[in-house]
Automatic annotation (TrEMBL), chain A:
One of its GO terms (molecular function) is glutathione transferase activity. Residues 94-225 form the GST C-terminal domain. It comes from Digitaria exilis. Belongs to the GST superfamily. Tau family. It catalyses: RX + glutathione = an S-substituted glutathione + a halide anion + H(+). This is Glutathione S-transferase. One of its GO terms (biological process) is glutathione metabolic process.
TrEMBL record, chain B:
This is Glutathione S-transferase. InterPro entries: Glutathione-S-Trfase_C-like, Glutathione-S-Trfase_C_sf, Glutathione_S-Trfase, Glutathione_S-Trfase_N, GST_C_Tau, Omega/Tau-like, Thioredoxin-like_sf. The keyword Transferase applies. One of its GO terms (cellular component) is cytosol. Is involved in the conjugation of reduced glutathione to a wide number of exogenous and endogenous hydrophobic electrophiles. PROSITE patterns: GST_CTER, GST_NTER. GO terms for molecular function: glutathione transferase activity. It catalyses: RX + glutathione = an S-substituted glutathione + a halide anion + H(+). It comes from Digitaria exilis. Transmembrane segments: none annotated. Its main location: cytoplasm. The keyword Cytoplasm applies.
Length: 234, 235
């Protein structure tokens, strides 16, 4: 039974994985120490393969030898285990607000993420154009969501960062990378002013500064992936 | 009964996602008003309550809409924590495992199943079937690991994962009659036994859809998909 003590805590991650960053940031919010293990996704470790045999992906949080997989499930786990004792909550307390937070996190993963990832992976101008439109539509929905949820405050979580801030904020390095690689602004101040303000504010928080890498690192990784894919196609 | 007029469920009789919510409400002993949505024309209420996805199920509690079956199930568990048994386990690690497998069912199993039944070509459907069967074997392994000899994913009594997978059983039985076998008694015997056990529960049986109606509906959907594919091929 989890008693809130840290115990043996390991996080298998990758330095530019936004999903791993969600977990690092959640642990940061809670002030919990852990051992970080950088995975080479081109040569996955035995530990990763045995801890996440179903998906073989990062992040995996291993707590007292027991693995937890899927970034949002891990964040909820962290929120539940390290609750109380004056530690900040990640999810809201009210069941309806929790449902709203989960809804938008699911939207971010199911609709928003594939759209902007699609921009990077598109091989034709036409395909890219389609994904850009999808991304812009998703951003508009998230802009509306922010205005409803934040209720005039600085973050989705209110005065301090919460579940949705982590769920969306983890992508900021990659938005920077897209700016550098395509001259594309995922969150445009002109069309999504609230989110643009939020992005800047989030980037200034302690957890973001501690965890999120510079966009240049994401660009370098994207190039490495491109080269790898090209080599597969030969 | 708790809940009363506060709860309204927008649904569609054949939707397995709606069945999940009905199962959860039934297991919790909650009463609610059910509103059947027309398959082709969506009501104002639905469009207003779920503007992003425009889909059922939507649970409306005290006028506030909650969307997405997994989110609705967790909401019911949290908002009505004092009523009936909990759906999700109490232990955070077990909850994380339940959430993991629920995500697996929707992201992997269902995607494969959809391809197996609605794939445009014979090849696509065969590939979908292969992946569905692989997913079912993975679930069989998960069930064997987490049940510890107990009858349900939730242990001695039904829980979140039982409801999650259970919502699909109507279509599992319907597709079997249409020639698509999802549960294999040789490869996934535990799941086959679990399915029988689950369906026969008092709180479950009355909620499950009429399989013969699903078969007819399934035939109609398959014919529609085939026609669309044929039309597509003609272009």
């Amino acid at each position: 039974m989890a008693d809130g003590k840290e115990g043996d805590l390991k996080l298998l991650g990758m330095h530019v994985s936004p999903f791993a960053h969600r977990v690092s940031m959640a642990l940061g919010v809670k002030g919990v120490r852990y051992e970080y293990i950088e995975e080479d996704l081109f040569h996955k470790s035995e530990l990763l393969l045995s801890s996440n045999p179903v998906h073989k992906k990062v992040p995996v949080l291993i707590h007292d030898g027991r693995p937890i997989c899927e970034s949002l499930a891990i964040v909820e786990y962290v929120d539940e285990v390290w609750s109380g004792d004056g530690r900040p909550a990640i999810l809201p307390a009210d069941p309806y607000e929790r449902a709203i937070a989960r809804f938008w996190a699911s939207y971010i993963d199911d609709k928003f993420f594939p759209a902007w990832l699609g921009i990077m992976r598109a091989t034709t101008e036409e395909a890219r154009g389609e994904k850009v439109k999808e991304t812009q539509d998703a951003v508009q929905n998230l802009e509306k969501a922010f205005s409803e949820i934040a209720g005039g405050k600085g973050f989705f979580g209110g005065d301090t960062v919460g579940y949705l801030d982590l769920a969306l904020g983890c992508f900021l390095p990659w938005f920077g990378a897209m700016r550098m690689m395509f001259g594309l602004e995922v969150i445009e101040a002109a069309t999504a002013p609230l989110l643009a303000g939020w992005a800047e504010r989030f980037g200034e928080t302690a957890v973001a500064k501690e965890v999120l890498p510079e966009p240049e690192k994401a660009v370098a990784y994207a190039k490495k992936l491109q080269a790898y894919r090209a080599s597969l196609n030969k | 009964m708790a809940g009363g007029n506060d709860l309204k469920l927008l649904g569609m009789w054949a939707s397995p996602f709606v069945v999940r919510v009905k199962l959860a409400l039934s297991l919790k002993g909650l009463s609610y008003e059910y509103v059947e949505e027309d398959f082709s024309t969506k009501s104002e209420l639905l469009l207003r309550s779920n503007p992003i996805h425009k889909k059922v199920p939507v649970l409306i509690h005290d006028g506030k809409p909650i969307c997405e079956s997994s989110i609705i199930l967790q909401y019911i568990d949290e908002a009505f924590a004092g009523t009936g048994a909990s759906l999700l386990p109490a232990d955070p690690y077990e909850r994380a495992i339940a959430r993991f497998w629920a995500a697996y069912i929707d992201d992997k199993m269902l995607a494969a199943w959809t391809q197996a039944t609605k794939g445009k070509t014979e090849e696509e459907r065969a590939e979908g079937m292969k992946q569905t069967l692989a997913a079912m074997e993975t679930l069989e392994g998960a069930f064997s690991d987490c049940r510890k000899g107990k009858p349900f994913f939730g242990g001695d009594s039904v829980g979140y994962l039982d409801v999650f997978l259970g919502g699909l059983l109507g279509w599992v039985r319907a597709y079997e009659k249409l020639g698509v076998k999802t549960f294999d008694p040789e490869k996934t015997p535990l799941l086959v036994a679990w399915a029988e056990r689950f369906w026969s529960l008092e709180a479950v049986e009355p909620v499950m859809p009429d399989v013969s109606k699903l078969v007819e509906f399934g035939k109609m959907l398959l014919a529609r998909a085939a026609a669309a594919a044929a039309a597509g091929e003609g272009n």
